[in-house]
TrEMBL record:
One of its GO terms (molecular function) is structural constituent of ribosome. Coiled coil: none annotated. GO terms for biological process: translation. This is RM18 protein. Keywords: Ribonucleoprotein, Ribosomal protein. It comes from Panurus biarmicus. Gene3D superfamilies: Ribosomal protein S11 (3.30.420.80). Transmembrane segments: none annotated. GO terms for cellular component: ribonucleoprotein complex; ribosome.
């Protein structure tokens, strides 16, 4: 009782300063088991909507396109530099 009466004014001062006291008791909650077999089922029909991702991870071949196109697009990102008399500009193209 004497200890709690000493802490009450101190706790009020902490609250005024914007600080809070944490509880020292813990409660143990058990989580229910979730059936993960539903999440592991793979769809029989799958459409990859981002084929570039597989190319960049080196899992799929990069399409080379038509041989008659110019300029060639055998790259993912191209750095283009334009030089003028006073400065150099750089552009990243897809």
């Amino acid at each position: 009782m004497a200890l709690s009466s000493r802490l009450l004014p101190a706790a009020g001062g902490l609250r005024a300063a914007g600080l809070r006291l944490a509880s020292t008791t813990t409660s143990l909650k058990t989580e229910t088991e979730v059936d993960t077999s539903e999440n592991e089922v793979v769809a029989p029909n799958f459409t990859n909507r981002n084929p570039r991702n597989l190319e960049q991870m080196a899992l799929a071949r990069k399409e080379r396109g038509w041989k008659t196109t110019w300029p060639k697009r055998d790259f993912w990102h191209r750095l283009r530099l334009e030089r003028t008399q006073h400065y150099v500009e750089a552009f990243v193209e897809r």
